[in-house]
Amino acid sequence: MRGITKENSKASGYCLDQGAEDDDRAILYPCHGMSSQLVRYSAEGLLQLGPLGSTAFLPDSKCLIDDGKGRTPTLKKCEDVSRPAQRLWDFTQNGPIVSRDTGRCLEVEMSKEANFGLRLVVQRCSGQKWMIRNWIKHGRH
């Protein structure tokens, strides 16, 4: 399964984005469809941000991580995650994004300090929903 640009029900027109290259924080940014906003949700439960390709891990792709410590999700190279469970998420189209490791949801909250007043957090699920636009489902070969 793949998707391109992920939007949250609370922040219409904003998409998950890799943010600054030297930072490990995913951000919300107005949707533009460029490679920093390309999202792949794999059958295994990985949420990857960055260029999409046929290989499992492209150099500029990073996995969204809930390490269970803070309230903000991080981005790391998928192979660099110390505990693989931290990079696994449950997601269904127009549903929540839930960390398999912590049971917390990826959600959006209002924040004066954040870009555009919106911040990504991992917290107790409050019913926010996400949608992948241009959803591509691969058939079985």
UniProtKB/TrEMBL annotation:
The record's annotation in SMART domains points to: RICIN
Q: Name one Pfam family in it.
A: Ricin_B_lectin
Ricin B lectin domain span: 2-133
Domain of life assignment: Eukaryota
Q: Supply the name of the protein.
A: Polypeptide N-acetylgalactosaminyltransferase 9
Organism equals Vombatus ursinus (Common wombat)
Taxonomy of origin reads: Eukaryota, Metazoa, Chordata, Craniata, Vertebrata
